[in-house]
Amino acid sequence: MAVAFTFPGQGSQAVGMGKALAENFPEARAVFEEVDEALGSKLSAIMWDGPAETLTLTENAQPALMAVSMAAVRVLEARGVAIRNKVAFVAGHSLGEYSALAAAGTLQLADTARLLRIRGRAMQQAVPVGVGAMAALIGLDFATASEIAAAAAEGEVCDVANDNGAGQVVVSGNKPAVERAVEIAKARGAKRAILLPVSAPFHCALMAPAARVMDEALASVTLSAPAVPLVANVLAAPISDPQEIHRRLVEQVTSMVRWRESVAWLAGAGVGVFVELGAGKVLSGLAKRIAEGSETLTVGAPDDIDAATARLA
């Protein structure tokens, strides 16, 4: 039964994340120190002590979540669970795609931290505060949510940003259009339709300025072929060529995260064990519902290390 490593995206952050890993494992501590050095600031202090509002800032949350994921990866590697030998594929949700590529050796840790800080700032600056919004439409299938987004646009941007599966679809775009989508979704029988507490409208056409920034930033670093294929957000299919990885990471900024299809593809390729590395358990919950009968493991705290090692080593 094949194993996939998955990496969470924004929204999974919480003050205190990664602290116990750093206190218990030198490999984890080294990751946080390297990220702090790469960014020229004590991101680890914000992660462990808050305040939450500062951690939630996109430019902090993105490298912080990656750091926790990589800390878990490095601890497992030190215990004989190496991606090259134990894992068939990697995948990450939005910024988690960068964590996946760092774990698979495509990106160096320091480069990944700097890229995610640039990405976070660029995404924040692409749209003035208050102009954009995102909303979760719960209890509707993807086709219905897509119809709602199209109907709500009315000449503005209203794109499907995340197809998370399990009846969870997120739309993104101009705030009035997203608000219209919420009302249409309620009328169409959504269990819930709510605006999300985010600072910018991610994964929609309004993010085009950020995509241009990331194209330039990615061109400044070296991308190596990953140890195992990445199932890309924009394709829901595996890629390994560094030039294509660059191209798809740029596309990802304005494109939908095809998570439901990605997990379904992995299950169809023989993956029966989904290991979520980093903060939270969001992806594990989705995997259980998308790939019924699959086994899930979460690795984000010291207690998780022994269980994961016993299962995977």
Secondary structure topology:
Layout: E1 2-7, H1 19-24, H2 26-39, H3 43-49, H4 52-56, H5 58-78, H6 83-86, E2 89-92, H7 96-103, H8 109-125, E3 132-138, H9 142-153, E4 158-165, E5 168-174, H10 175-187, E6 192-195, H11 208-219, E7 230-232, E8 237-239, H12 242-254, H13 259-268, E9 271-277, H14 282-290, E10 295-299, H15 302-312
Parallel strand pairs: 1-2, 1-9, 9-10
Antiparallel strand pairs: 3-5, 3-6, 4-5, 7-8
Helix pairs in contact: 2-5, 2-8, 5-7, 5-8, 8-11, 9-10, 11-12
Task: Give an account of the 3D structure.
The chain is an alpha/beta fold and 313 residues long. The protein is 52% helix and 17% strand. The chain is built from 15 helices and ten strands. The protein has helices at residues 19-24, 26-39, 43-49, 52-56, 58-78, 83-86, 96-103, 109-125, 142-153, 175-187, 208-219, 242-254, 259-268, 282-290, 302-312; strands at 2-7, 89-92, 132-138, 158-165, 168-174, 192-195, 230-232, 237-239, 271-277, 295-299. A four-stranded parallel beta sheet has the order 2-1-9-10, sandwiched between helices. Strand 7 (230-232) and strand 8 form a beta hairpin. Helix 2 (26-39) packs across helix 8 (109-125) and helix 8 runs antiparallel to helix 11 (208-219).
User: Roughly how much helix do the residues carry, as a percent range?
Assistant: 40-55%
Number of helices: 15
Oligomer: single chain
Order of helices and strands: EHHHHHHEHHEHEEHEHEEHHEHEH
Tell me the fraction of residues in β-strands, as a range: 15-25%
Round the Cα radius of gyration to an integer and report it.
18 Å
Low-confidence blocks of residues: none
Gap from first CA to last CA:
14 Å
Structural class: alpha/beta
Spatial sequence of strands, sheet with the most strands = 2-1-9-10
How many β-strand runs? 10
| Major beta-sheet overview | 4 strands, parallel
> What global shape is seen?
globular
> What do the pLDDT scores average to?
97
